[in-house]
Each structure stands twice: as structure tokens, then as C-alpha cells.
Amino acid sequence: MTAVNSSDEIAPSRMLHRLTVLIVCLVWPLIWVGGLVTTYDAGMSVPDWPGTYGYNLFLYPYKTWLFGPFDLFIEHGHRLLGAVVGFVAIGIVIAAFWKENRRWVRWLCVALLLMVIAQGALGGVRVVLSDRTLAMVHGCFGPAFFAICVILAVVTGRRWRQDSDAERLRSSTSILTPTKKLAALAISLVVLSYVQLLLGAMMRHVQPTTSAGHFAGIVSTHILTAFFLWAMTGLVWLRLRRCGDLTLSRPGGILIFLVAVQIALGIGTWVVNYGWPSFMTWVPGSQSFLVQAKGFVDSMIVTGHVATGSLILAVSAMLCVRLFHRRWQAKQDRLVAT
Amino acid sequence: MKVSLLPNCFLIAALLLVGPGCDAPVESFPDNDVYALTLAHSRDVPTEAASRDVSSVIEELFGTPNQPRWPSELMDPDLRISEQNLTRAAGPQLSEKDGTHLGLFREHCVTCHALSGSGAGPASVFQNPYPRDFRPGVYKWKSTQRDAKPTRDDLTKLLQHGVAGSGMPSFSLIDPDDLDALVDYIVYLSVRGETERELMAAAIDELGYGEDSIDDDARLVTQGELVTQGETDGAAVIREVVEEVSNQWASAESEVVPVPAWEELSGETLAASVNRGKELFHGPIANCVGCHGKGGQGQAVTLDYDDWTKEYSTRLGLTPTDRDAMRPFKKAGALTPRLAKPRKLTLGVYRGGGDTDSLYRRITQGIAGSPMPAVAVVEQEDGTGLTSDQIFDLIRYVQSLGPQSTVPQSEFNYQSSTP
């Protein structure tokens, strides 16, 4: 076995990459629509599954869907979009086994398909059992699936293949070799982003029987972790900003921006749900602010917070995968040199 | 309906994986442990037996959070509560094909007000003031006498307008039928909660539940028909308590405070009225300045609490800031007492409404459950209260304080003494 894969060995599969990009472009809107379903409490607007009010999912009268109640519109729309994602995932597996010669990529594609099936089933069971906790699990599994989609898009991309070219690597001696510490930081970013998603989901799907103390604990941890995560993105960016590889430094910078936006959206989410907290009454207008139940802008802020959380996880995962790839390449390089 | 094999296989697999569901079961309303503890402190008797029997009676009378019941056989017929509305508002969140939402209380209210309406919901500790505890049946924002219940219209308006500057949202975008169902459910929780409290007090004070043994005749058990017939002492007490509570709610409409006719003023007459109001605001009879501070800037130091938290602190001789004294109550589900802050009137935000009629009622009745006192209305100036004309002067002055006010500021508007 040769130590380094050349670009010839990794046959280009444009079709697979395009399909993975397509699924990324579909899943983020899917997360938005899923978030809206929860924001509008529309999760139980279609009480049966896998059909919709007795109809096959794809045969449900489109006029009733488009011009019926808003709850039905978003819930059925969420299911349809989910089904489309499922079909694209099937296409990805076919393309992978047809064109892709890296075995681990093929199996990652299979895992992706299994995840989309599991996610659909989770959504279905949540409806059939009318269970809020399962809605939370469904809500947490979606971002993980999105992150896997992004990773697949990265590893099937042209850039990844170029990076695998040992000749190119050797010519770019200025490119940083990530240290263990940096790799650990990148993993921590992924883990913390996901922990934040879990905490957020616990707040969003809070049980009626949850104690005030327990909820307060979740809220406090969510807030503290948010600022800790923000500080970590700053630290990662400081290490990457002059690494000579834009595929690393750019996501690092984007993460700082995304977490800042996410913190602002988080404050907004709290305010539109519960009003301004006591320690922020210095904000002009806070003492006259009126919470509006089910307001459109308010709902978009809340759902935007959910969707941005997924984006942070996906970008962190992308950065992490690229960093590890870079480390692996450096290791291969050293092997060649010796 | 056509059954597709593949999705159902996945459904079965997923069902096997997740078991019968993971939600915390909502089988019954939690007992009012805080009030039981309060009674135990104030009467110096054990309350476990009373709590246990009251709990079973309350569940038999009012049902559960998923299957509420309205004991119409004991209720005042004027108190029209729709059982259909209760069913719509109770239970888990669902929506029907036509967009009708079910489980409205859990959709809109439970995170702050809690399942039993205790006001100690998951998000309650972050609210200031705390969400309303419906169970004592005391409401701040209403058109009725201080001690009376709010009318249905008061509750509906409150839901529609919300409470600015607090966590209470405006539900103006929600279907009016949903709001109607929610009002029914709030009254239901209130009547249920008050009945529970009154029965617990009666059990201790009248039926001897604090003693070592309880007479069978005095036991609080509904025994079906016996409640309506009142054949035992216990059953008679249940009937009396439920009837008394429901009568108070049924008579709310007759307790609305009438507002005398008032005149829209402008120009010099308005300015003169505002100036007179300012004098009254800072004067000894209304003495608004004592709490709201000079010029209504809310800078006076006050050390009072609201009635909901006073019940388990100062009224028991306990210091609200004494953590050790408060610990058992907090463990039972009570919220930490917080100082009741008088409104900063210069914000121009009036939580119960800033229109003249609402302010007239607020001044003449005070705010139930809060330290805000009532000003007596007198026919002639006699130093003990204010005439209605003086109250309207006071209202015009208060209305002039807000930043968006169209009412002219008083010539001698007080400014804060601190920079």
C-alpha cells in the first residue's frame, strides 16, 4: 500500500459531490421548516404517519396543503422536504457505489442514508406517540445529520482531492500543520456546539412538569457555554488566521461571526418569549416591551436561533474534518520523507 | 387507507427503540404543598392527612390535567364554564385538520404559570414580577372591586393586550375562540385552586384534621351523591366551599366599579387640572409620592412584598430574606419572595392599562395582591379621601408623566434629586 494517495487514485466524482452539495442546500431549509413547526406548535397538526390524513404523503391534495391552515402547510411541507432529502440520500449512496472508490466515503454515504431514515422514523414516532421528548430527540438529530451532509460535501469536493495530492502539499511548505492542541480545540468546538444544541432543545421542548430550578440550571449553562464557545472560536481563529490555508482560516473567522449572531439571536429568542430579563432593564424600551405570542418576526428570530445553531455545528465539523485531514497529510508527508 | 410496508417497518423498529414514549407523565395536578406547609406553620398542626384527603376530593371534583371536570352540580349556574372549552384548553398539544388547536394551556401558558396555575412554572424564576398564581383567586388587573374576582371581559382583555414590561404576552394574534377557551380554563384553575386551599383550611379549622384522630363523619370524601346532599359534615363542607368560591366568580359582573362621567380637557383647563393633580400626587391624602417617588420617577425606597409571597413569609413571622426560614417553602415549590417595586410612572407604561377608566379604578381600589392601597372616594373634601374630580386631576397628572404623553407636563414637575 502506498503511503500517499495521489489525485489519480481518488477518482473525481462530480455527480457525488453535486448531490452532497444539493443535500446540504436542502437540509438547512429543512431545519428551518422543522424549527417553524415547533415554533408554531404545529408538530401535531397531522396526527398520522407516514401518510397525511389517510393520504399517501405525495398524493395529499396540494390545494388543501397550500391554501389550508398554516400549521398543516408547514408540517406537511416539512414531511415533503424530508422525503426529497431522503431521495437525494438514496442518490448519494448509488453515486458513491458507482463512482467513489474510497471505501470510507461509501460507508459514510450509507450512514447518511440510515440517518435520514432514522430521522424520518423519529419524526413519525413523535407524531404517533404525541411525545415532546421525542420531538426534542428529532430536533437534535437533524443538526447532526446536517453536519454529516456538510462533511460529505467537503470530502467529495475538488479541494479535498487537491489536498490529497502529495506533490501540491510538498510545494506549499508554508501551510500550517495543525498541532494536537489545535485538533483538540476543533473537536471541543464540535462537542460544545452540539451540547449547546441539546441544551437549547431542552429549553424549547421543556416539559410542563419540569421544575423551575432545573430549567434555571439549563438556561444558565446554555448562556455560560455560549460565551465560552465564542471565546474558543476566537482562540481557534487566532491559531488559524495566518495558516496559509483559506479553507481553514475562513471557517475559523466565520465561526466567530456565527456565534456572535447566535448570541444576539439567543437574547432575541428569550426576549420574544419571556420579555427582557431583569438584569437588562437598562436597554432602552425594555421596560415597555410587549411580548407578542405567535408574532411572525418573533417566530423567525426563534427559528433563526435554531437554524444558526445547526450552522455553527456544521461549520465546526467542517473545520475539524479539514484540520484532521491536514494532520493526516502531514503525517503521510513525513512518512514519504523518511 | 393504503398501508405501506417499509415505513411501518421503520415505525415499529423506532417504537421498539424508544419504548412507550419518554415524556414525563402528567397524570394529576400537583398538590398545593406550599399552602399545606403554610397552614402547618400558622396552625402548628400536621397537615398531611388534610392534604391527602383534599387531594383526592379535588381530583374527583375537578379531574386531571388531561381530563378536566367541571362539577356543575355544585357550581353557581351563573358561572358559565364550557366543558368543551376546558377539554380544548387542557391536555397535550394537538391540532386538528381545520387548524383548531387543542392543549392551549400547555401551548401558551404552562411554561410560566405551571400545570396547576401555581405561577411556579419552569421559566417563572426569570420573571419579575413572577407569573400569577391563579390558585388564591387574586388578580391585579381588573375592573371590579379590590376583593372581587375579575370578569371574563377583564381576563379576555388581559390576554389580548398582554402586560407590557413583563413576560406576559399579548395573545392578540390568537383565535378569539382559543382565548375564550383559555379564559374558561383560567377560571377553572382558579376555582379548583381556591377550593383546594379553602378545603385544606376548613379541614384543619373546622373538621379537626390537625388532631390525632378524625371523626368518620368529618372526613373529606365526596362519596358521590353525598356531596350534593351534604349528608356528612365533610361532604357539607365540600359543598359549602365549592359554592362559596363559585358564587364569588359568578358575581364578578355585579362588582364592576362604576366610573363617574369625566370631561376631556385641553389647553389651560387641562394644565390647571394637571397642576392640581401634581399637588395631590405629592400631598398627604393620596401620598403617591411615598412609593412612586417625586414626579413618579420610582426612586422611593420600599420594602414591601406582594400578597402571594407574603403568605409564606412575613405573615408567618418569617423574614423573606432568611434563606434558612424560606428553604422548606422553596423545597415545597414556593418562589423566593421579591420586593414589590412601585411603577416608575415616567415610563408611561401602565401594566393594567393607562386609560382614564382603568386608572380611576386602580386609584380607588388599589391593586389587589400588591401593596398599592386604595384612595377613598368622598363626596366633599374632608381630608380622608379624594373627590372624583380630584381623582381625575390626579389621573391627568399621572398621564402627563409618560414620554409619549399628549397631556402637558406640570409646570412644577419634580425632578429627581439625584443626577
TrEMBL record, chain A:
Transmembrane regions listed in the UniProt entry: 21-40, 80-98, 105-129, 135-155, 182-203, 215-240, 252-276, 296-324
Topology of this chain in the membrane: Multi-pass membrane protein
Keywords of this entry: Cell membrane, Disulfide bond, Heme biosynthesis, Iron, Membrane, Metal-binding, Oxidoreductase, Transmembrane, Transmembrane helix
InterPro entries per UniProt: COX15/CtaA_fam, COX15/CtaA_HemeA_synthase
GO MF assignments: metal ion binding; oxidoreductase activity
Chief location of this protein within or outside the cell: membrane
Any GO BP: heme A biosynthetic process
A GO cellular component annotation in the UniProt record: membrane
Pathway: Porphyrin-containing compound metabolism
Compartments, record wording: Membrane
Protein name as catalogued: Heme A synthase
Automatic annotation (TrEMBL), chain B:
Gene Ontology MF annotations: electron transfer activity; heme binding; metal ion binding
Organism (species): Rubripirellula obstinata
SUPFAM superfamilies: Cytochrome c
Keywords: Electron transport, Heme, Iron, Metal-binding, Signal, Transport
Protein name: Cytochrome c
Residues in the signal sequence: 1-24
InterPro entries: Cyt_c-like_dom, Cyt_c-like_dom_sf, Cytochrome_c550/c551-like
Domain Cytochrome c: 86-190, 272-402
Keyword Hydrolase: no
Highest taxon of the lineage: Bacteria
